[in-house]
Amino acid sequence: MKKRTFLKLSSSLLATPVLSTFENWMDDKKLLNWAGNYAYSTNRLYPAKSLQQTQNLVKKYDKLKVLGTRHCFNGIADSTHQMISLVDMTKVHSLDTRAKTVTVDANMKYGHLATYLDSKGFALHNLASLPHISIAGACATATHGSGIKNGNLSTAVAAMEVVLANGEVRTLSRKDGEDFRAAVVHLGGLGVVTKITLDVQPTYQMRQFVYVNLPMSQLKEHFEAIESSAYSVSLFTDWQKGRVNEVWLKELIGKGQPTAAKTEFYGAQLAKKNLHPIAELSAVNCTEQMGVPGPWYERLPHFRMGFTPSSGKELQSEFFVPYRNAVEAILAVERLRDHISPHLFISEIRTIEADDFWMSPCYKQRSVAIHFTWKPDWNSVRKVLPMIEKELARFGARPHWGKLFSITPAQLQERYPKLPDFRKMLNEYDPKGKFRNAFLDRNIFGRV
Hints:
It contains 11 helices and 22 strands. With 448 residues, it is of the alpha+beta class. The two termini are 38 Å apart. The strands form 5 sheets. Strands 13, 14, 15, 16, 17, 18, 19, 20, 21 and 22 form a 10-stranded antiparallel beta sheet that branches.
């Protein structure tokens, strides 16, 4: 293995752009996240292969965090004490065809669940751009996918089995009302989620078309029409040349639907080959395009399950703004293009329907997410992030919980109206703070 230098988030400022040098990847005892930018603060990682083992570990330790598929770019899942892994708990427990729900081990990856569901004639309503992530981690952070009428992944949650701080097991479902709406997007502070029940629907087929060079002027004039033009829409831009580089349209295949795509889409031209969101990279790891029909789980994500997603070595940030402010927010970011583009691989713009989960960035508002896939140069990114956040502040931008941001705890409390109630709920479920860490202490409890 080549000697490589990475960065490690400071344990005292886990959600801020303050990093200390991480030695190198030669030390195999260091636990790293998926992209390699974050080194966890302990290598004490204990596996649990059953509910009973999970309960035993929770009872044994005073401080504990759950480590999932390691796709977060900050310290939300970190611990300076010990962590638990449910990597071997990936069973499907039941598929209720009458109720249209599936109950699975929470650490199952979406890509694996999708193939099982499709084989039984069922599907999920939405998927994130990566199928490699765990169900529990995605729902806990309100990870989303795309679609003007599609809620994020957590909106499919019908029930959760949770091991609480005292080792007891509790199941929360929609019949629990506000407790349930508080608990689904729990940021890792509630307990250890061991099972999740998700809504399913009949399976469906999709196709995907990509258009290139959409004029930004068209986006200004026809944003809603563009976002409503397919089941799921993603806009990729480097913020240069007054255009959106690529438009990815993921369409449902239905009776009477034209088989051929239009050669032009609001001034953008139909791509003549499969493309990667980052133009310089091969499309071999991307889901099939060019209108080729396929199952939902091979079209909704951008990247195929068996391949390295995105660019691999990268940093990520993402901010959610109310849908009504989408065009203004996009133009505000575009004005920073000369500050952003030198440090950027690509940005993605997506729409997500509103939900009612307290700590979801889409709480009570349909939202547009502006995502940044950065080059792995934290010294540069840490300087431009506050510029973006300042421009988006007037829209009440909410950050993705699993990505890099520098928004202060006071600003977060302003933008999440239920944050004080969420804090009370965590105190009720975990009065001694067993599942808290520096990230939660800072961003939820305001302990800087």
